[in-house]
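Assess this one:

_____
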Amino acid sequence: MIRVGIIGSTGYAGGELVRILTAHKDAEIVWYGSRSYIDKKYADVYQNMFQIVDAVCMDDNMEELADQVDVVFTATPQGLCASLVNEEVLSRVKIIDLSADFRIKDVAAYEKWYGLRHKSPQFIEEAVYGLCEINREGIKKARLVANPGCYTTCSILTAYPLAKEGVIDMSTLIIDAKSGTSGAGRGVKLPNLYCEVNENIKAYNVITHRHTPEIEEQLGLAAGEKVLLNFTPHLVPMNRGILVTEYAKLKKQVTYEEVKAIYDKYYADEKFVRILEKDEIPETKWVEGSNYADINFKIDERTGRIIMMGAIDNLVKGAAGQAVQNMNLMFGLKESEGLELVPMFP
């Protein structure tokens, strides 16, 4: 049985980790960390855990935690994990960080986009980017995994095969993305209040969203070239879900069958990536509550462009589910253990 500690267990991603791991046959949560609710019963924070979780919330003492568990999930704001990690801790426990602290290999880019001084840059090179479908073998051997962000997971998976195969002109790539409000976390923020979000849709952080360099870096590695792209996120009035629509110029004329064969080359054997039937469009409602990513594409012969589309649940495949998928790989378990969640509808 894998002993699990969660720092940040009372945020939305942390709560989703608890929900998934509670039903995981090979894992047991022994530490529910939360600075905001120390000594408060976890089920009093999340009433859905009444008579399911009987534990109380604890602090974020990484040194003590490392002696009690096999793996630590840090579902915390940027900067915290980097401030807690050291060689002594990593020699005793594996860490899966759901923040951006170790996702971006360029320290200067991280510090510029996040406005933070990195507290432990010596571990950035070692950290494995935890997108399982792309870095599976590296994740299996890792002691520190950087769990990707929600927008990035959907954006990268949707374009990755075509970037890798050199089918699209990466300099023309534009990503339009939309997210439910849980993507902003559980903290009280004026723009996320019901009256601000309901009956509204808006773009935000235009040209400045912090997931941009992460997407550029990973798709650049796939394409073998430096990538600069436009990424524009939007907030929509729903709880969960990410939908991305990506546009790029094709390098050559291709048929539907040729592009489909490329996607199948990379994803046909992937449990959690579903390439939809021809002309079916991904929708967030068909992945809600699950670890699936639904992907499809349309070729626009008139403009010589391809439109790539993807949908995920931002709290599952975009956060907690992916983190558990990483844990399964790190401990040699069946990759889908605890994650065979049928999407919820309605």
Observations:
- The chain has two domains: 2-126, 151-314.
- The mean pLDDT is 97.
- Residues 2-126 form a domain with the Rossmann fold fold (CATH 3.40.50.720).
